[in-house]
Amino acid sequence: MFKARMRFAKEGRAKYISHLDLMHTMQRAMARCQMPLWFTEGFNQHAYVSVALPLSTGYSGEYEFLDFNLLSENVPINAVEALNAVFPEGLRAIEIYPLADGGMPLRDIAWSKYRITWSFADGVPADFAENVNKLFAQPTVEIVKRSKRGEKTVNMRELMNGFALTEQDGQVIAEVVTAAGNNNMSPEYLTRAIAQYLPQYEISCAAYHRLCVYNDKMQAFR
C-alpha cells in the first residue's frame, strides 16, 4: 500500500455536488475503472479518500486535491485517462502521483487564489470598480467572520494577499488570494464587504472559482 494524490478540477454542473457526494462519486469512479484502492479491514470496510480544503457547494475549482491509498506499488498506467472516461460531467483528473514524489503535507496549505465574477442586472455601474479598489486598498476593512466557534470581528485585509479587478463582457472579475487552512477566509466575504461598505451597488450574482492553492511561502501546493 502507498499514498497517492490526485489533482482534479470541479467545474460546470459538478460544482453543485456536495462534499459527501463528491467522496462517493470519487470512490464509484475508481471502482468503475478498476483503480486498486486500499480498503480498511473489519465489518464496515471503506476506502480512505480525503479532499484537501473542500470547496463549498456551488464553488468551482481547477486546483483541487484528493488523497487516497493504493494497493499497487505505483500509480496505474493511464490512470488519469481511465478516471476521466468514467467521471461525470464537470469532474476532470489532471494528474496523479505518489505522495513520496514531492507531495506536500496538507498542513502546509496557507493561501487560496480565487476568481470572483460579479454580475449586475443592469450592467456594471460606472464607478463600481474604482470604489471597490479603494475599499480593498484600505489597511483596515472590518467584517464579522463566522466559524464553528462563533462570530468575531476581523480585519479581512490581514487575510488577503493580493487583489486585482478587470471588467469584461458586462461583468467585473476579481482575482484575490485569501487565507486558507486554520485561518480560512472564504472569498464570499469580499461580496459581503461590498454589500456592507458600498450598499449603493446591488450585485445580482457572484460566482467563485479556485485557481490555485499555496503554502505560506506562496509556492503552489503539490
Please describe what this structure looks like.
Helices cover 19% and strands 36% of the residues. The longest helix has 14 residues. The chain has 222 residues and is of the alpha+beta class. The protein is built from four helices and ten strands, in the order βαββαββαββββαβ. The strands form two sheets. Strands 1, 2, 3, 4, 5, 8, 9 and 10 form an eight-stranded mixed β-sheet that branches. Strands 6-7 form a two-stranded antiparallel sheet.
Largest sheet: 8 strands, mixed
Radius of gyration: 20 Å
Q: Count of DSSP helices?
A: 4
What percentage of residues falls in helices of 4 or more residues? 10-25%
Shape: elongated
The residue-averaged pLDDT reads 92
Give the class from helix and strand content and strand pairing.
alpha+beta
How many beta-strand runs?
10
Strand coverage percent:
35-45%
Note the gap between the termini: 21 Å
Q: Are there runs of 5+ residues with pLDDT below 50, and where?
A: none
Q: How would you spell out the order of helices and strands?
A: EHEEHEEHEEEEHE
In short:
With 222 residues, the chain is of the alpha+beta class. The chain has helices spanning 19-32, 79-86, 128-137, 188-197, and strands spanning 2-10, 49-52, 60-70, 91-98, 111-119, 142-147, 150-155, 160-168, 171-179, 205-214. It is 19% helix and 36% strand.
Properties at a glance:
alpha+beta; eight-stranded mixed sheet
What's the layout of helices and strands?
Elements: E1 2-10, H1 19-32, E2 49-52, E3 60-70, H2 79-86, E4 91-98, E5 111-119, H3 128-137, E6 142-147, E7 150-155, E8 160-168, E9 171-179, H4 188-197, E10 205-214
